[in-house]
Amino acid sequence: MTPKDKVKEVISLSFPEKLKNGFDVRFWDGEIWKPAGVEKAGFTLVLNSPGALKILFFHQPS
User: pTM of this prediction?
Assistant: First the structure.
């Protein structure tokens, strides 16, 4: 499973259907993923590195 596949799986499992279908994801290499059903995204989640989503969810401020 590639890092992109992992991100897609996490987003698909983590967000309710209505929210999941309301945004695009732009990966660190410029590829844009539109989850099923997205015609016009309300916003784009930009991930600048393969570990960005992990940092977003699990970062513990010091």
Answer: 0.77
